[in-house]
Amino acid sequence: MENVAQQILNGLTLGATYALMALGLAIVFSIIGLVNFAHGELITISAYTMLAMRYLGLPWVVWALAGVLASVLGALVMERLAFRPVRHASPVTMMLTSFGVSVLVAAAFEIGISPRPRAIPQPGWITSSFSVAGLQLRAEHLLTFGVTAVALLGLLLLLRRSLIGAAMRAAAEDFDAVRLMGIKANAVIAYAFAISGLLAGLASVIIMSRRGVATPHMGLTLGLNAFVANVIGGMGNLWGAVAGGFILGFGEVALRAWLPASLSGLTQGFLFLMVAVFLLIWPHGLFGQKTAVRV
Amino acid sequence: MTAHAAGASRSLFSVAGLTTRYGAIDAVRAVDLEVGQGEIVAVLGPNGAGKSTILHSIMGLVRPAAGTIVFDGRDITALDTEGTVRLGVGLVPERRRLFKNLSVRDNLRLGAAARRGRGDKAADEQLLFELFPILRERMDQLAGFLSGGEAQQLAIARAIMGAPRLLLLDEPSLGLAPILVEAVFNLIQGLRGRGYTILIVEQNAYQVLEFADRAYILRNGRIAMQGTAQELREEDSLFSAYLGLGGSQPACDTAGAPAPGR
Amino acid sequence: MNQIGSRFRPALGGLASWLVLAVLALLYATGSSSRDQLVTVMLINAVIVVGIQIYTGNTGIVSFGHVSLAGIAAYLSALLATPSAVKMSIIPHAPFGLAHVEMPPVLGILLAVVITTAIAAVLGLAINRVSGLTASIVTLAMLFVVNAVLTNWKDLTGGAEAFYGIPVVTTRWWVLAALLAAVLAARYFWASRVGLRARAGRDDELAAASMGVRVVRARYFSWVVSAVFAALGGALLGHLLGAIQPGTFYLSLNFLTLAMLVLGGMNSITGALLGTVVVTVGSELARWLGDGPRLLGVDLPDLPGLSLLFQGAVILIVMLLKPEGIMGDRELDHLWRRRGRPVSEPAEAPALPGAEPAEAQSAVAPGATVPSAAQPGRPLLAVSSVSMHFAGLRAVDGVSLEVHPGQIVGLIGPNGAGKTTLLNVISGVYSPTGGKVTLGEEEISSLSATRIAWRGVARTFQNIHLFSGLSVRENIEVGAATAAAHRPEVHRAADELLELSGLGEVAERKASTLPYGLQRQVEMARAVALGPQVLLLDEPAAGMNEAESEALIGAIRAIRDREGCAVLLIDHDLHFVLNLCERIYVLDAGRIIAAGTPDEIQKEACVIEAYLGTKAGGASGQVQVEAVV
């Protein structure tokens, strides 16, 4: 029983990370139809920024803030330099553009820093653990829950309450109609990218607190889970992406707990295989709609 | 019939020599339009005549191939959609294009984003609830759940919230039952007394001619006929001009022409 | 024209692109052994890239998964052909007794290709269910999963460590032969019926379905065929390098092959080869620079990752400047063909075929409306009480109509009346919420659009849905291929159809480059190629001036007379409909409000009302009725 509770806790933590990343991807996709392969690179950018802050000997809070800020700026720069010129191109062109950005960013870190993994030792309190009602809680868990809860709630409020939030929801439905309200298309898109950067930056802080190592190519691997979460939830559906993230997180924890040790390396393999079977039955995901045919 | 400049009223808006292409097809060819301050002007014609294309060209949703569009003395031909809206040109688009997953309130709020401090927002809200009492009850409902008539009211209300100095309406009667069509047209007439300038595009000719000041009849992308609403109402060949039954087709003419007005 | 010849011609054309590359490779590779190796690796990469091209080029889906198929094949062949002495030290606990298997490498390679293709065939069932970007994501997931399996199934693969001792047997001649096979297969597949269908689905899934194409199936075949060459390339690479790791077939090879494909142009096989060469050269240069060479007396710093940077930059720059790549959708042999036999530019809008002046004249002569042919017996197409509701909107509300064999029927009504929705229900794009549609004896309302097309219901679209990347001839061939497969008795060859439709002049032009009027004609010719029993036309006269739409009247009649088909058409041009159709239905707000001959319809007050609205003052259409009667 305790074990199950512990696993649920782990599933929640992992799912929360995936959900944050998947949500950022979904916001951008819902508005301009871009599957941003460079989304994971925002996490890389953020991680290396934290590394730099650590070298400067600054306190953890500063790293975290700088990491998030770097991710936001990274997203805005990508949008301005790479994605705006192809905004009206085909979805495949947009996707490949983001793929090129992803490769470029990873290569830049290989060249600029090192192809080898770099440790970002976390402060001791992050790994400190204490037990509550028989559950092993670590500060990292609390950090994850806190950050995710605040981020999701904040995003919900922004989308529901603010004008730009309403504009983003509206843009997901009908972009030209939003422009007809006199709201600048570029502003809406920039906000969407900034939010996706913010969420990726927060995810990066959480991920780094757990793994403490940055590599140039970590982005694509991490980003993949976000893509798959979106596929599960239905491409571009925000709350579907969150649900997909949690499903992936729980699935991974459950598989890891139940698979024999010799197969533990295949956890993700089994997980994605299950997603493939799921797609056979629901090719449009949980909340995805079959794209309406407009004849 | 000759073109009538808008009498005493000052010209607020004009289009000259507008030609717009979609790919290889000329959707609109050399169209001239003029709308005076406070006027209600209609562009009438069957579907496919290019009516919506004119509005899209005005709004910067498509780039015209030739011609100039002037609003309040300023050339807005090359201005983007957002800029045009911010200057005070509001469009109620064809098929309404409400944000269906947003509440009525949010739809109106987005509409108000266009006003840029123009006019008295509180007064406009007041007017809105006067004109569209049903919307007040529906404020927190999703726009997607409104009935056709309510949805059209919201579409007009959303545009009004942007305090437009020129209101463009694209087929507001489309897809509405006859009784609702009448209600929507009554609403539009209701705006006249309040200083709105309106350019309305419609297929539904006779009812619009009842309240418009002037009208242009568009066919195959060209203006086939124009005049005051009074003149056009009494024009025998309206139906033929409208549906292209005139000219080479005398056999159809007699069947097509409506009797003169009562 | 003989079928085989016409399909092999492009494959022979592919020989040209191959020859150029082969000669270049042989010339360059007669130097040092490191050069030799580099060229051979490049040629193997070319095999893999052409393999990816077969899938991506024909389906439009970018695949990240082919690299992992190459990996699976390389490991399989290594497992089968490596001496068991070596295997006993790397993978002593290999399952299925694989540690003791020792095959001749050629057999190992062949078997590896077969098994890998079989694995791909299974995976493809899931991957090709989804389309577009989602499919790309799924292939990326596949890349990760295969890598995880190769890394973690230590008993089988030896894990992340190198699998060494693979017999080094791959020679440049083998690779050239494999590449030749890949290029010929790619060109042959491209021109084959399945390839054509896949490309039709790539350009427009909806139109493809309406032309009887099973898009998912065509995609699936492309996937399986492309897997063969990805696998072949992988196996050859293993037997060239002698030692492989899971990482050999992971991200870096994926970036590399993708840059090659994208640079040359995803839709061109020549492009795949060209991209391979350019990216290989560029990457090698970058690698040399990155190793910190001494240049002009200056020691450059070590810059690992420079070749990766180059590949990323290639992808990004191509996407920003020329997304279709260097070759676009051209092949090497097109270059000389074009020069040899220039395609003359057609006039903006040539006279419509089948519309001899006399016929057009009679069509518009007053009172010359063809009287309805006597309509005995059963209708060919019957729509009975069909409704189509969308979330609260009753787009079509209990409509019944009949179309008799050989009859031309018009459907008119104001904007938003539900005309196109009704056409979509008949052609199977939507399945109706209520009522049924029957064709002859058979109820078709429960069938998919594809199957309805197989039964000879062809259609055009209001806003032209051509297969934009296909030539005019290919557009028509899509329809002809469906007819040949499902209604052989009405099948006509593409050449005959081109001639009948007067499109012979522009047969080799890409559909998207044609002027509007011609695009409309191509769309109609494509529908006719299906050998239709019923031809559904959605606003065929849209955008036409009066002379053109009069010519169209003759053209549609000519088609009806020649094909013996019935026609159901929508148009907003009353003049056109009244002159062409023998029977007219008027739709308003989703219901039929009038039906009859053109003469009857012209007298109907409600028609005028539907178009122009009620004249105010009269509460109903009363005033109108008086006015008209």
Considering the chains and any ligands shown, give keywords for the structure.
heterotrimer; A: 295 residues; mainly alpha; two-stranded antiparallel sheet; 12 helices; 4 strands; globular; C: 629 residues; alpha/beta; Rossmann fold; six-stranded mixed beta sheet; four-stranded antiparallel beta sheet; 26 helices; 12 strands; 10% strand; disordered C terminus
Describe this structure in words.
- The complex is a heterotrimer of chains A (295), B (262) and C (629).
- In chain A, helix 1 (2-32) packs antiparallel against helix 9, helix 7 (163-173) packs across helix 9 (185-211) and helix 10 (218-233) packs across helix 11 (238-258).
- Residues 291-295 of chain A have low confidence and may be disordered.
- By secondary structure, chain A is mostly helical.
- In chain A, strand 2 and strand 3 form a beta hairpin.
- Chain A has helices spanning 2-32, 39-55, 60-83, 91-112, 124-127, 139-161, 163-173, 175-179, 185-211, 218-233, 238-258, 267-281, and strands spanning 118-119, 129-132, 135-138, 213-214.
- Helices cover 36% and strands 25% of the residues of chain B.
- In chain B, helix 6 packs parallel to helix 7.
- Chain B starts with 10 loop residues before the first strand and ends in a 6-residue tail after the last helix.
- Residues 1-8 and 245-262 of chain B have low confidence and may be disordered.
- Chain B is built from eleven helices and ten strands.
- Chain B has 262 residues and is α/β, with parallel strands linked by helices.
- With 629 residues, chain C is an alpha/beta fold.
- Chain C folds into three domains: 3-248, no CATH class; 377-456 and 532-598, P-loop containing nucleotide triphosphate hydrolases (Rossmann fold); 463-530, no CATH class.
- Chain C has helices spanning 3-28, 33-59, 66-81, 84-90, 105-127, 132-152, 154-157, 172-191, 193-203, 205-210, 215-241, 251-264, 269-290, 306-321, 332-340, 357-364, 419-426, 449-454, 472-486, 494-500, 516-529, 546-563, 574-580, 598-603, 605-612, 622-628, and strands at 294-295, 298-299, 381-390, 393-403, 408-412, 434-439, 442-443, 457-459, 534-538, 566-570, 583-588, 591-596.
- Chain C has a six-stranded mixed beta sheet, sandwiched between helices.
- In chain C, helix 2 crosses helix 12 and helix 13 packs antiparallel against helix 14 (306-321).
- Chain C is elongated and about 90 Å long.
- Mean pLDDT of chain C is 85; it is low at 339-351, 353-374 and 616-629.
- Chains in contact: A-B, A-C, B-C.
